[in-house]
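Hi support team,

I submitted a single chain yesterday and got back a structure, but I'm not sure I'm reading the C-alpha cell output correctly. Could someone confirm the output below corresponds to the sequence I sent? I've pasted both exactly as they appear in my results page.

Thanks,
R.
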Amino acid sequence: MVPQPDESIAQLRHERHSVGAVLVESTAGAMTTGEGTTYDRVRAKVRWTSSDGSLRTGRALMDSGQKAGSKVVIWLDAKGQLTTEPSTASAAATEAPLFGAGAALAFGCLTYAAGRVAHWRLDQRRYEQWDREWDQFGPQWGHRTT
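Hi R., thanks for writing in. Yes, this is the structure output for that exact sequence:
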C-alpha cells in the first residue's frame, strides 16, 4: 500500500520535531551570486540541549542577518540529528504534481532514447547485411555485351 501525501507528511512531522536552539555564530547578510540571485538563508553553527540533557552543536540552515546568541528553532530527526523542516501540506500538494511531471518527462526521455538506440542498432545491422549481399552479388552485375 502506497502512503498518501497527507500520511507521508504526518509521518515526517511525527519523526521530526522542532527544538529551541541558540545561534553560536552570527549569520552574514544575504549573499548574492553573480547572476543577481540572493540567498537569504545560510549555514550557521547552533547549540541545543538534547533529550538526554547534553549540549550539542551542529550546523543548520538559518535566516541571514541574525546575531550570535539569538534564539532559533531547529529540527531534529528521531535519532536527534539535525534535519530539515518537513514540508507543509500545501507545499507538498504543490510539489507532488511537479515531481510527478518531472518523473514522467524523465521516463519519456529515457524511453525515447532507448528506442532511438535500438533503431540505430537495427539500421547498422541492416547496412551490414546489405554490404555482405552486395559483396556477394554485386560483381555479377558487371557490363555484358552480347
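A quick pointer for reading it: Residues 22 and 93 are 32 Å apart (CA to CA). Let us know if anything else looks off.

Best,
Support desk
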